[in-house]
Amino acid sequence: VYPQPADEVLNIFTSDAPLKWSLRDLDGREVLKIQSPHNQVKMDVSALPSGIYILCGVCESGVVYRKIVCAR
To answer: Which helix (H) or strand (E) holds 45?
Structure first.
């Protein structure tokens, strides 16, 4: 996952192709959601306010969580 901190686009690469991605704020609210069968995803975070978010990827082998920082 790069760049960190993110400002416009968050690039996500995985070895396993998740079925869906979600980005949540620290209050647990889902702020972005993407479904993709590919192991490379670009998530547009340009409309999000600066702050810390949790990226969640769900795939056949389980769930992946990453801390994401958005900064302007």
So the answer is: none
